[in-house]
Amino acid sequence: MKLSFPIFRLKRKARLLSREAKIPLHRALDDVARAEGFQSWSHLSASVLNERSAADLLAGFESGDLILLGARPGHGKTLLGLDLAARTAVAGRAAFFFTLEYTEEDVWSRLRSLGWDEERLEPHLTLDTSDSICAAHVVERLTASPGAVAVIDYLQLLDRDRQHPELGEQIHALRSHARETGSVIVLISQIDRHFERQVGRLPEMTDVRLSNPVDLALFSKTCFLHEGEISLESVA
Fold first, then answer.
1. Residue 31 sits in the same domain as residue 96
2. For residue 232, is pLDDT > 80?
3. Same domain, 98 and 212
């Protein structure tokens, strides 16, 4: 679907609408997106990404990868994560989507907005929306499916339950499992709001929002999104 203006101008329009109508920015963004024919701003942002983005990213993943997928709210990171899982499933490979943020119906609704249907995905796609999601839970679910692709939504929520190990320990456990089994694990991540003051660049490791210190060098690759642009880089 062709946009009436480039995405940066639509975002500027939403900011102006937010100020003039005295409504939250996320609501203004959704209003602008609906005027463009999309369900929401995240739907618009994900659609702006090249339609082959998920396929191209999957081609760039390697067995044993632990990948950080980060963006500010409304830039399509969750939809991209879902598209990665869906494309893995239709290729006949075990795919998992773990979320502490959405219900199962929310997830299926988002998948349908991307053009996927349950009948096509269910043989190989597992959705997990339980409240017990942590690294140990993910590893347990993946044990019977070596070589799977798993997407976790999202990194920061793994740290919310004090009964679980510290986030750094969980990341280390996920990295070890990926390497030992040849799986690919993608963790969706928030980006700090200070990034909104930056102009003309994609997020970087230093922009990842963390409440507690974590060695992000545990990741093998990063994938950052912003304003319809996307990058996949190896971590040095």
1. no
2. yes
3. yes
Considering its fold, how many domains does the chain have in total? 2
Which domain range does residue 28 map to?
A: 7-37
pLDDT confidence of 182, banded at 50, 70, 90? Answer: very high
Burial group, residue 171, by CB count within 10 angstroms (0-12, 13-18, 19+): buried
Angle at CA 55, nearest 5°, toward 217 and 36? 105
Q: What is the largest CA-CA distance in the chain?
A: 54
CB 2 within 8 Å of CB 10: no
Which pTM value belongs to this model? 0.85
pLDDT at 152 over 70: yes
| CA distance readout (Å), 68 to 100, 124, 138, 217, 229 | 17, 23, 16, 10, 16
CATH of the domain at 179: 3.40.50.300
Average pLDDT over residues 110-120: 90
DSSP type of residue 147:
T
pLDDT of 84 above 80 = yes
Gap between the Cα atoms of 1 and 91, Å rounded: 26
β-pairing, 221-226 vs 229-234, is antiparallel
Contacts 24+ apart (CB under 8 A), 112-117: 113/39, 113/43, 113/79, 114/46, 114/79, 114/82, 114/83, 114/86, 116/86, 116/90
182 and 109 fall within a common domain:
yes
Whether residues 12 and 92 fall in one domain: no
Q: Check whether 156 has a pLDDT greater than 90.
A: yes
Q: 214-229, pLDDT tens digit by residue? A: 999 999 999 999 877 8
Joined together, the tokens standing for residue 35 give 């005027």
